[in-house]
Design brief:
This protein is globular. The protein has 2 domains: about 220 residues, 3-Layer(aba) Sandwich (Rossmann fold), CATH 3.40.50; about 180 residues, Glycogen Phosphorylase B (Rossmann fold, 3-Layer(aba) Sandwich), CATH 3.40.50. The strands form 2 sheets. The chain has an 8-stranded mixed β-sheet with strand order 3-4-2-1-5-6-7-8, sandwiched between helices. Strands 11-10-9-12-13-14 form a 6-stranded parallel β-sheet, sandwiched between helices. The chain is an alpha/beta fold. The longest helix is centred in the C-terminal third of the chain and has 18 residues. The structure holds uridine-5'-diphosphate.
Length: about 425
């Protein structure tokens, strides 16, 4: 066993506050991941400080999640929301604010696990000054994301070289799916250690209520056929493909088909604009009566919506991992998802749901209909999904794998990590 100091670690998530409300602008999977990993590592004996950027004057500096797990908000740039693409220039201040906090509290860390490319820069900077192990998770790769868009944003000039240096120099990069690992190798670099440890979900919270009970609690028709979207309003999520697919579903005219689009948005912000655009499409297709927008789903109702749905649809154009499908599968709800990225890892087509080409409205409509038309098969897919999540994607299991990786790295035993670790999570 190590002395206690070795078990004190920092998770750094400059642009994904682990204590934030989830489900609206720029607060999604990364925030959930960092918070859950932090809290579960603390349960497994680690002392965890999670650093993020303070983005409002009235936010508390410290949020204590448990006796050994806290979020620490440090100043870096103005105390206002700034999009991720605007944060690079504030990173030196982030580093000095973190150092000032550590001096004040007399704490140091044996390891930092950084999240998203901005934080990788912070970790690499700290690692040059202190004897630190650095583990990194990208959450999204600029090198992949920019391939799908017509014009490279200016931030690409900063992001792409940082992503490459990170992969080539940090102690270990965690890919959350074999697809993400392959993308790193193909588009970023052949050098550096990559280990696969997937994202997780809360298997106690999701799957703890029956469909009937969930519908009763939400006031939904017990006999309706319900398709559900959960996620942020972001064009990359492909919500319009789902709306168009439901519009042409065979079931539209003779079953009580309903579409629920769950996610937060704020008027005038990018997510508010995307929601307006989606609502306009709903109107144009004459689907107002069958479509509802319950807003941001939270700890009181998210698990109920997943359980109430007959099918959960994830029409993303690109998804490095995607927590939504594993939350749905944990709730025994089959998933129809785009055949891209991490969705190819989490969803097993014909076993836990169906994978279809992204943006292909006909294919989404056909896949959704196949599931909604066959209750027995739907239940079978749902049970298979639950089994898959219990086997591979519980936070407890994921965090145990991360803890074992940290232990090895802290002990200086990092040789051949990539070859040794990868088979652990092979599907
Ligand atoms: N989410 C939520 N409430 C909402 C919409 C989304 O809690 O109204 C959560 C969702 O349950 C999931 C996360 O936000 O845990 C989204 O993560 P995912 O990896 O699917 O997508 P990202 O937002 O990272 O692109």
């Amino acid at each position: 066993m190590f002395p206690d100091q070795n078990r004190r670690i920092a998770l750094i998530s400059v642009a994904g506050d682990p204590a934030a409300e989830i489900g609206q602008e720029e607060a999604g999977g990364q925030n959930v991941y960092v918070r859950q990993v932090g809290e579960h590592l603390a349960k497994q004996g680690w002392i965890v400080d999670m650093y993020t950027r303070k983005s409002h004057a009235d936010q508390p500096e410290i949020v204590q999640h448990s006796p050994t797990c806290r979020t620490i908000r440090v100043q870096a740039g103005p105390l206002e929301f700034r999009s991720r693409n605007e944060l690079f220039e504030y990173l030196p201040e982030f580093v000095s604010s973190m150092e000032a906090f550590q001096r004040r509290e007399s704490v140091s860390y044996s390891l930092v696990h950084t999240h998203y490319w901005l934080s990788s820069w912070v970790g690499m900077n700290l690692r040059q000054k202190y004897p630190l192990v650095q583990v990194h998770t990208y959450h999204s790769l600029g090198a992949v994301k920019y391939k799908a868009i017509a014009q490279m944003p200016t931030v690409a000039m900063q992001r792409l070289p940082v992503e490459k240096t990170c992969l080539e120099t940090v102690d270990c990069v965690v890919a959350t799916s074999p697809q993400e690992q392959a993308h790193m190798r193909e588009y970023v670099s052949e050098l550096g250690n990559v280990v696969i440890v997937p994202c997780g979900t809360d298997i106690q919270r999701f799957g703890n209520v029956s469909r009937q009970e969930a519908r009763a609690q939400l006031g939904l028709d017990p006999d309706a056929k319900i398709a559900l979207y959960v996620g942020r309003f972001d064009p990359r999520k492909g919500i319009e493909t789902l709306v168009q697919a439901i519009a042409q579903s065979k079931l539209r005219d003779h079953e009580n088909l309903q579409l629920i689009i769950g996610g937060g948005s704020r008027p005038g912000k990018s997510d508010g604009n995307e929601r307006d655009r989606i609502e306009k499409i709903v109107h144009e297709l004459g689907m107002q009566d069958m479509t509802s927008f319950p807003g941001r789903l939270d700890e009181t109702n998210l698990h109920l919506y997943y359980a109430a749905a007959d099918v959960s649809v994830v029409p993303s154009h690109y998804e490095p991992f995607g927590l939504v499908p594993i939350e749905a599968m944990a709730s025994r709800t089959p998933v129809v998802a785009s055949d891209v990225g991490g969705l190819q890892f989490t969803v097993v087509s014909e076993e836990t749901g169906l994978l279809v080409p992204p943006k292909d409205v006909d294919a989404f409509a056909h896949a959704i209909d196949r599931i909604l038309e066959n209750d027995t098969w739907r239940a079978e897919l749902g049970n298979n999904g639950r089994h898959r999540v219990e086997t591979y994607f519980s936070w407890e299991g994921v965090t145990t794998q991360l803890g074992q990786l940290y232990d090895k790295l802290i002990q200086g035993n990092a040789k051949n990590l990539e070859q040794k670790e990868t088979p652990q999570v092979a599907a």
